[in-house]
Amino acid sequence: MSFIAVAIGGGALIGAIGSGIAGSKQAGAAKNAAQLQYQEQQQALDFQKQQWQTQQGNMAPWLKAGQGAVGTLSGLEGQALQGQGPLAPWTGQFQAPSIQQAEQEPGYKFALQQGTNALTNSAAASGNLLTGNTGEALQQYGQNLGQENYQNVYNRAMQQYQLGYNQYQQNQSNLFNRYASLAGLGQTAAGQLGSEGQAAAGNVANISLTGGAQIGQQLNNAAAAQASGYVGAGNAIGSGLNNLGQYAQLQQILNAGGGGGGGGTLSNSGLPIDPATGMPVE
Question: pTM (2 decimals)?
Answer without folding.
Answer: 0.53
